[in-house]
Design goal:
2 copies of one chain form a homodimer.
Chain A (H helix, E strand, L loop, with lengths): L3 H16 L7 E2 L1 H8 L3 H14 L2 E4 L3 E4 L4 H25 L2 H23 L4 H21 L3 H17 L12 H23 L3 H25 L19
Antiparallel strand pairs in A: 1-3, 2-3
Helix pairs in contact in A: 1-3, 2-3, 4-6, 4-7, 4-8, 4-9, 5-6, 5-8, 8-9
The structure holds a DNA duplex (30 and 30 nucleotides).
DNA sequence: ATCCTATGAAGAATGTCAACTCGGATATGG
DNA sequence: CCATATCCGAGTTGACATTCTTCATAGGAT
């Protein structure tokens, strides 16, 4: 896209949603947004429709747009989708990887290892955690790139973004767990990453796929528990019963 | 959606594309479409953007919309995506199926068997072929429904539609192969279906997944050959190099 | 007499439209 | 073959029509 005003509105709203300024369920009114951004309502409308197809907002006719909100069922389904796609991508990565891809993956992995030992020793862990998730993203992106399937990469990135939004603003409100729990969990993630990297490095698609499957499943299990706890706040506020018609 | 005019435009254009009246690459100008449909340009614009997110048309800013056209790379990637999703769905179906789902799958399978023997004997096979693909779709949809993941179902159906459009209008222009070749291939498809059904019936997810994987791979192999032959007509006319920015 | 429900109007936000502006593509001339 | 001018179509805008929501009031029931 290089539509000046539509892009401006798209970037503006998208950034706010990803930063958590617009929380799930927040109403997005075209008129107030248009005055806020300084453009007309049409590009705002375009941006909202684009964001809807990204899965970040939901639009109901005559009712307006709002930041996407999921119930546990939808969340589970999305996680399953991500599991299917990302594990398949890991298998592809083990087949299609080049040396440069391998280096990129290892680079992210090494950065995560360094950050992990730093976090273990640091009194204030938050800023380092932010860097860690950054490198975690880099690790997963590197694998998707190594899979050499741009469409799949794009789709997985889409799901990652949705996941980030609906599971809370930038993951900054983790459930109440002790520091040692977090330490253990980070170590488990690192071990999983090692396993995945090793499988890709030795060009073993089935091992890479299974390792990624377990890894994602672990992440899902970790995410679903607090999700289920706050279930009452995530009930189906929208019933998009639009069955995608396969008819001509 | 229940936006009167936008829906009208959406259904209108979508139907034409799926019927093959608007072939791949066909330019879709908002003005002519709006006069043709009898609405303003705004709902046509909305419809085109919606169809873009469906993957059926591509919009380039300041240049207008056109029916989606793929190069072999994109086609391969989409097939891989479908392979990952649909095989995963088959595995889920083996786990989550209910009796009713099993009946639905068997129903479609039985219909395909009957049609196959009818086609083997019939002199004019085309109308029966149309019914066969209808039941084939029913078979795959039944499995996706049995997987109990609406999001995944929706996504796979989207890919099916794109596949139908880019691989030619309603599959009516098959490459030049003999009748016996087609007979053999239909039988292979039926056998694959039997295998998939059996695995789902005995609740064997890994077998169901693998069977579906092989089935889709066979379909892809069959589709890629004529695709590669006509490669010159499917070169990249559009270079949508828009890397999905993961940044905030 | 008080509370709940239903009906109505006022307000606001969305869908839609026609017109204006801007950018790219084609044609013409050098 | 390249530069310039013209034309066509998309992006954008503000205004109008439509519809959903909300609040208030009147009626009835307990």
């Amino acid at each position: 896209m290089k539509n000046v005003n539509s892009d401006m509105a798209y970037d503006y709203i998208r950034k706010r949603i990803l930063h958590g300024e617009y929380g799930p369920g927040k109403a997005l009114m075209t008129e107030s947004l248009s005055t806020e951004i300084g453009v007309s309502r049409t590009p705002v409308r375009d941006a909202l429709r684009q964001l809807e197809s990204d899965g970040l907002v939901s639009i109901r006719p005559r009712l307006g747009a709002s930041v996407k909100q999921m119930n546990v069922k939808e969340f589970r389904e999305m996680c399953d989708l991500r599991l299917a796609l990302e594990s398949h991508a890991a298998g592809l990565a083990a087949i299609n990887r080049r040396e440069a891809d391998l280096h990129e993956i290892e680079f992210a992995l090494e950065a995560m290892r360094r950050l992990n030992v730093a976090i273990l020793a640091a009194p204030q862990e938050d800023p380092l955690i932010a860097e860690l998730v950054r490198e975690d993203v880099r690790f997963h992106v590197a694998i998707m790139s190594a899979a050499k399937n741009d469409l799949m990469k794009k789709e997985i990135l889409r799901l990652h973004l949705i996941n980030r939004v609906v599971s809370g603003p930038a993951g900054c409100e983790r459930p109440i767990v002790t520091k040692s729990d977090r330490d253990i969990r980070r170590q488990a993630v690192l071990d999983s990453h090692d396993e995945i990297y090793a499988a890709i490095a030795r060009s073993d698609p089935v091992a890479a796929k299974q390792a990624m499957e377990r890894h994602i499943q672990d992440i899902i299990d970790g995410s679903m528990r607090p999700m289920a706890r706050a279930e009452s706040g995530l009930i189906a506020r929208e019933l998009t019963a639009e069955e995608m018609s396969y008819g001509l």
